Amino acid sequence: MLTQRWRLLVTAALLTPPLIWWGWGSSDRTRAPIESTSGERIDFFVVQAEVTRWQDNGAEAHRIQTQGMHHLMDQSLTRLDAPEVQVPAQSGTAPYRLRADTGRVPDSHQQVELAGNVLLHDNPHSGSAIKLSTERLTLFPSEDRAHTDQSVLIQRGQDTTEALGMDVYFKEQRIELLSDVKGLYHAP
């Protein structure tokens, strides 16, 4: 009888430390946010993501495709890697597409901040397409508006316009150039 107790005691002594480590040690690692190299705390990330936002009436508001999205807890925003934003045609407006090197979406989802080689293409029903390029652009999807204080290059066919700062009103199909406007236009 003493040998069976002895075996049971030795088995319990050998199994207790791994079970304690496995039970208590693993729960801390799975719940803790990831720290990036810049010290930002990431609580979730998605690789090759596509996010669709919908309007109250059920129509698609916009779609964001990105190589990666990282939610930063401390800053209450989601960082996007190489995002592409697509906004479908809505009540008389042409569809358009935006691309950038990086992007940020605050948790309020009121705006999409794009940076690095920002490129905006419209896809008009008729006429030639417009291509806008800048280094930073803030898109306000619920207002159908975009804004930048950076320098802007607008190309339509062979015609080009440069400016410092711009507001784009998509529903009205109107662009307001804020200052230092220069243009080169070719007569037909």
Automatic annotation (TrEMBL):
The keyword Cytoplasm does not apply. It comes from Marinobacterium alkalitolerans. This is LPS export ABC transporter periplasmic protein LptC. The gene is lptC. Pfam families: LptC. The keyword Transmembrane helix applies. InterPro entries: LipoPS_assembly_LptC-rel, LPS_export_LptC, LptC. Keywords: Cell inner membrane, Cell membrane, Membrane, Transmembrane, Transmembrane helix.
